[in-house]
Amino acid sequence: MADRRADARYRPARAALRWYDGHRRDFPWRAAPGAVADPYHVWLAEMMLQQTTTAAAKPYFEKFVSRWPSVLALAAAERGVILEAWAGLGYYRRAHHLHQCATVIARDYGGVFPKSEEALRQLPGVGAYSAAAIAAIAFGERAAAIDANIERVLSRLYRFRGSRAELLAIAREVLPRVRVGDYTQALMDIGSGICRFRSPLCLACPFVRRCLARAAGDQDSLPVRVGRKSRRRLYGAAFVMVRGDGAIFLRRREDRGLLGGMMEVPMSAWRGDAGFDFLGDAPIEADWVLLGGIRHSFTHIDLGLGVYVAGVSGDLSGLMGERDARWVALDCLGGEALPSLVRKVLAVLGDSPKRGVWGAKPPAKKGGSGGIPPKRVGGWEKSFRAASVATRGVASKRKRPTHAPPERQELL
Ligand code: SF4
Q1: How far does the centroid of ligand 1 lie from the alpha carbon of residue 62, in Å?
Q2: Which CATH number do you get for residue 149?
């Protein structure tokens, strides 16, 4: 009797593995059926897939593997080069961790990844989920990985409404004895493609006959979010300085903190007070023009930035004391380690968020000290522009703008 109960516990895993054999998704980081996974590939993918979709991560993964084919090669690379290669993928702390972790693997483990979940958990940037996923997929360890997708599947399958820690205990109990890596990847695939947040495709799911939430018809109410924190709203300003030859001033952020080590245009501090005089944080006195605004979301922050632009000339040597400061021509910006936030800021200068300064088109010169390209706007920006047009062309040397910055009303 006890054996039959134990056997029933593994039935969902058997169904998942059968389904995986016929429906698994192919990714460059996944081993072919029956082949042994490369721990370097699995680790690299897991680092990239934190907060990032598979579609977005795929070209980056291919670029990294082709450029640094082993963890030893990655450890030998300069961090700045890795950050540049990472630019655009977001959550740049991961790029730092990638290099730190590769260095530890090279120095302390001779370039060979440790196998156990516990040892992997000690590595820089490897959290509880990643450690379990790498242990299971790369080494077949009986480790239960629970990310948001797997949490959704298991919560619905068992109609579970408790904490993540309790769900983890259940996940460990039902782990199959073999092919744990395939089972984990099956749950990932089911979670992302079938057991969707809204309107799950239950008829295509291998758990359809066993799923308790499906039987009760309350799939959409699961998983229950326990103690989820809301994002903070912060506000600030970005200051884009355009030299007479069209070059833009960039500097490097401190290594610690959000977007650590990435290049940026000067920015004000980010504050909770939308009414702050952000122009007071401008790096130099200039005819700052409020050209537009952007919004950007981080994991715990919703940020609204007003984008100020000024054509600058004269003695700018004082700026060069900034960390890694330099003037960068528009057509060279693609080679800089610019986070998505800064790309959005610079896109305000261009014709559209997509083309922005990334197109070949240089800013139209209007003579004088630099010139600011014309900008067409639409949607939510349009109403903002109507409010901000009053300040365009007005020489407001570090004066408070005469209207509310866009982030106060429209951005968030
Ligand atoms: S049967 Fe439906 S709700 Fe249940 S796990 Fe599958 S897709 Fe999700």
Answers
A1: 32
A2: 1.10.340.30
